[in-house]
Amino acid sequence: MLTLRPLPEGDGPKLEPFTHDLLGDDVEFIEILGHNGIHGFTETEESEPERYAWQYRKVPKHKAAEFESHFIPFYQECRVFGRLKEVNREHLAVKAHGYVLLTVNQALEVKMRNALLKLPRESKTPPKTAASLLITSSGVIKGIVKDWVEPARYEYESDIPLHKIDNILCVSHFPRMLEELHEIHRCGIVIRDMSISQYVNGILVDFSMAWTMPHPLGPGGGLEPSWTFQSIAAWDLYCFQTKVIDLWNDYLKHTLDTRNRECQLRAYRHPNQYSLRSQPSRQGPFLPIPNDEDIDLDMIELPR
User: Fold this and answer.
1) Pair 124, 155 in one domain
2) What is the pTM of this model?
3) Do 179 and 136 belong together in one domain?
4) Tally of domains in the chain
5) What is the pLDDT of residues 248-264, one digit of tens each?
6) Apex CA 121: angle with CA 37 and CA 113, to 5°?
7) What distance in Å separates the CA atoms of residue 185 and residue 229, rounded to the nearest whole number?
8) Which domain of life does the UniProt lineage start with (predicted)?
9) 299 with 154, same domain?
10) What domain range is 263 assigned to?
């Protein structure tokens, strides 16, 4: 049997392997929770007496090891969970139990097929096959086994989609979520694609785009200015403001037609606000905030 080592190789934090055999007879793949394009997808599996969520990644075979360890979603998550464990901050996100490495074979396809059969299918959507979800050039998939987080639900029936209900009810957790984001930054981790979809019931579950120091593009890496990680942390806070808090307020206003319960929590000042009453200590020029959305932003507030 292949002996698995902590990943990724090289410098930096690592994640230990998950020791339970996911292809064993005592494990059932319950359902496929969602397909996330290039990152992979999440699936629940049940082995007595625990229930887990398994998020796997299809890793290209031709990528160099050093590149993989810093820029491929699977390794990026390994580094995050390894860092949270080494600094005793695992409570800041969903608990990760380790990684798995599975060869794509008939046993895996059978378990995947059984999970697919439980999916509700729309008449206009062609059915997915287990083989189509497991296509990878290397013939191997790597995944991370995490605690299962039960989504928040209404006590009464509703026509609102379940994931949207979870997003709505998440507001009671916003203050804690923001404080935990600050603490994650202090652990040397930046999220980079922060949004409400990263959370389930107020728990941060997805780090597929996160960077963890030491990093080639971080302080001391020599490839980017030393303030790059700080500015990306500011981007995380800006996104928490716009894609978590503001999104919730907009939903109240446009869908529920009410402003009575707007969330007043502030994660980051909007750029159009800082020029209204500027303070001498915070007047420009400001450092830029690099981002993948081509938004022209200045770092008008420093992360904690």
Assistant:
1) no
2) 0.81
3) no
4) 2
5) 999 888 776 665 678 99
6) 70
7) 9
8) Eukaryota
9) yes
10) 149-303
